[in-house]
Amino acid sequence: xxxxxxxxxxxxxxxxxxxxxxxxxxxxxxxxxxxxxxxxxxxxxxxxxxxxxxxxxxxxxxxxxxxxxxxxxxxxxxxxxxxxxxxxxxxxxxxxxxxxxxxxxxxxxxxxxxxxxxxxxxxxxxxxxxxxxxxxxxxxxxxxxxxxxxxxxxxxxxxxxxxxxxxxxxxxxxxxxxxxxxxxxxxxxxxxxxxxxxxxxxxxxxxxxxxxxxxxxxxxxxxxxxxxxxxxxxxxxxxxxxxxxxxxxxxxxxxxxxxxxxxxxxxxxxxxxxxxxxxxxxxxxxxxxxx
Length: 291
Description:
Helix content: 25-40%
CATH class: Alpha Beta
Distance between the termini: 44 Å
CATH architecture: 3-Layer(aba) Sandwich
Strand content: 25-35%
Shape: globular
CATH topology: Rossmann fold
Radius of gyration: 19 Å
Number of domains: 1
Number of helices: 10
Oligomer: single chain
Strand order of the largest sheet: 4-7-6-5-8-9-11-10
Order of helices and strands: HEEEEHHEHEHEEHEHHEHHE
Structural class: alpha/beta
Largest sheet: 8 strands, mixed
Mean pLDDT: 93
Low-confidence stretches: none
């Protein structure tokens, strides 16, 4: 279905190389008037990268993230974001909503939010997910075929201006210039960042007695504030029980472990953790009004 949705929504796309509008030329590619051509895969996603991309998000990491997300680990966050979007759309009184998840990874967050909105509203929801990782997009399409999935670069989003009512940036890097460009006139950005206690049990074990043992998100919030007007700022905190299998997947998926010696990872798996802390800040913003 995603392939059909890409073809139906082709007017929203721009060539990431020259900025020209895109057209569907045949069943396997889309191209612009300058003949920059991009693959439309048989599986149903579009690759809008002009070359290869280097990323730390390998298939093993993304499969672990997929399993963690499906285990309801982030359910309170998903419910809160869904509620925020519902309230926004009730205020706008819109019959449809277009959501872009920029840095969607393996797609679970966007798919779960879209499902919540569809189940609790009468307006239509169209979801677009983009990530630089082809492995992530392939997993997303495998599990959630009702969303438009794209391989692409956040620094040059392949979309025309003012297209999206909601942009999601969940535990992912942001490019505020691009976000502002593709956000609709009344669009919002929902950004989720870690709080100081996020996965504190892992941070304490991996970075004991170093400057990385503690974390503050104040600079990230101020950077957000310098680029957009903050409409709302909420904190979600909870603790979840965790078994060894889930702990291993959590360690695989979090960047906290990526530069940690393997011995420390083995140690924490051997010792075990009974529970894990989740601490997230949800920032809702919009383009600053011109004076």
